[in-house]
Design a protein that fits this description.
113 residues; single chain; alpha+beta; 4-stranded mixed sheet; 7 helices; 50% helix; Glutaredoxin; 4 strands
Length: 113
Protein backbone atom coordinates (compact mmCIF):
# COMPACT_ATOMS: atom_id res chain seq x y z
CA UNK A 1 0.00 0.00 0.00
CA UNK A 2 1.30 3.43 -0.91
CA UNK A 3 -0.03 6.70 0.45
CA UNK A 4 0.65 9.85 -1.55
CA UNK A 5 0.26 13.34 -0.17
CA UNK A 6 2.02 16.23 1.47
CA UNK A 7 3.66 15.68 4.85
CA UNK A 8 2.22 18.77 6.54
CA UNK A 9 -1.36 18.33 5.23
CA UNK A 10 -3.79 17.83 8.14
CA UNK A 11 -5.83 15.20 6.29
CA UNK A 12 -2.69 13.26 5.41
CA UNK A 13 -1.60 13.43 9.06
CA UNK A 14 -4.99 12.04 10.16
CA UNK A 15 -4.83 9.28 7.56
CA UNK A 16 -1.28 8.26 8.53
CA UNK A 17 -2.18 8.28 12.23
CA UNK A 18 -5.23 6.13 11.53
CA UNK A 19 -3.20 3.64 9.46
CA UNK A 20 -0.57 3.45 12.21
CA UNK A 21 -3.26 2.83 14.85
CA UNK A 22 -4.73 0.04 12.70
CA UNK A 23 -1.29 -1.53 12.24
CA UNK A 24 -1.49 -1.14 8.46
CA UNK A 25 1.84 -1.28 6.65
CA UNK A 26 2.22 1.45 4.03
CA UNK A 27 4.79 3.56 2.22
CA UNK A 28 4.47 7.33 2.26
CA UNK A 29 5.34 9.41 -0.81
CA UNK A 30 5.39 13.19 -0.42
CA UNK A 31 4.55 14.27 -3.96
CA UNK A 32 5.48 17.87 -3.26
CA UNK A 33 8.97 16.91 -2.08
CA UNK A 34 9.55 13.64 -3.99
CA UNK A 35 7.72 14.61 -7.17
CA UNK A 36 4.96 13.10 -9.24
CA UNK A 37 5.34 11.56 -12.68
CA UNK A 38 3.04 12.17 -15.62
CA UNK A 39 2.45 8.39 -15.75
CA UNK A 40 1.47 8.21 -12.07
CA UNK A 41 -1.00 11.07 -12.45
CA UNK A 42 -2.46 9.50 -15.61
CA UNK A 43 -2.97 6.23 -13.72
CA UNK A 44 -4.91 8.03 -10.99
CA UNK A 45 -6.95 9.97 -13.53
CA UNK A 46 -7.92 6.72 -15.23
CA UNK A 47 -8.79 5.08 -11.90
CA UNK A 48 -10.82 7.86 -10.25
CA UNK A 49 -11.18 10.69 -12.78
CA UNK A 50 -9.46 14.05 -12.91
CA UNK A 51 -12.48 15.76 -11.31
CA UNK A 52 -12.04 13.63 -8.18
CA UNK A 53 -8.33 14.42 -7.97
CA UNK A 54 -8.62 18.17 -8.45
CA UNK A 55 -9.16 19.93 -5.13
CA UNK A 56 -11.36 22.92 -5.88
CA UNK A 57 -11.68 23.82 -2.20
CA UNK A 58 -8.04 24.67 -1.52
CA UNK A 59 -5.98 27.82 -1.76
CA UNK A 60 -4.03 26.59 -4.79
CA UNK A 61 -7.28 26.39 -6.78
CA UNK A 62 -8.42 29.81 -5.59
CA UNK A 63 -5.09 31.34 -6.64
CA UNK A 64 -5.53 30.23 -10.26
CA UNK A 65 -6.70 32.94 -12.67
CA UNK A 66 -10.47 33.00 -13.28
CA UNK A 67 -10.02 32.19 -16.97
CA UNK A 68 -8.11 29.01 -16.06
CA UNK A 69 -10.72 27.91 -13.51
CA UNK A 70 -13.61 28.72 -15.85
CA UNK A 71 -12.19 26.70 -18.76
CA UNK A 72 -10.71 23.73 -16.87
CA UNK A 73 -10.60 20.50 -18.88
CA UNK A 74 -9.04 17.06 -18.46
CA UNK A 75 -5.95 18.17 -20.39
CA UNK A 76 -5.46 21.48 -18.59
CA UNK A 77 -6.21 19.89 -15.19
CA UNK A 78 -3.52 17.26 -15.84
CA UNK A 79 -0.90 19.93 -16.53
CA UNK A 80 -1.98 22.06 -13.56
CA UNK A 81 -1.73 19.06 -11.21
CA UNK A 82 1.75 18.20 -12.51
CA UNK A 83 2.94 21.78 -12.04
CA UNK A 84 1.14 22.30 -8.70
CA UNK A 85 0.82 18.94 -6.90
CA UNK A 86 -0.63 20.72 -3.86
CA UNK A 87 -3.86 21.13 -5.88
CA UNK A 88 -4.40 17.35 -5.76
CA UNK A 89 -6.94 16.20 -3.20
CA UNK A 90 -5.17 14.23 -0.48
CA UNK A 91 -4.34 11.59 0.35
CA UNK A 92 -4.21 9.40 -2.74
CA UNK A 93 -3.79 5.75 -1.82
CA UNK A 94 -2.87 2.83 -4.05
CA UNK A 95 -3.57 -0.67 -2.84
CA UNK A 96 -2.96 -3.19 -5.57
CA UNK A 97 -5.01 -1.96 -8.52
CA UNK A 98 -7.35 0.08 -6.29
CA UNK A 99 -6.97 3.83 -5.94
CA UNK A 100 -8.82 6.00 -3.44
CA UNK A 101 -8.73 9.73 -2.79
CA UNK A 102 -9.42 11.53 0.48
CA UNK A 103 -9.72 10.12 3.96
CA UNK A 104 -12.76 8.75 5.77
CA UNK A 105 -12.05 6.28 8.59
CA UNK A 106 -15.27 4.29 8.10
CA UNK A 107 -14.77 3.99 4.34
CA UNK A 108 -11.14 2.98 4.81
CA UNK A 109 -12.03 0.36 7.43
CA UNK A 110 -14.47 -1.23 4.97
CA UNK A 111 -11.99 -0.90 2.06
CA UNK A 112 -9.17 -2.54 4.01
CA UNK A 113 -11.22 -5.40 5.46
Amino acid sequence: MKLYGIRNCDTVKKARKWLDEQGVDYQFHDFKKDGLTREQLSHWETAVGWETLLNKRGTTWRKLPDEVRDTISAQSAHQIMLENPSIIKRPVVERGDDVTVGFNADDWAAWLS
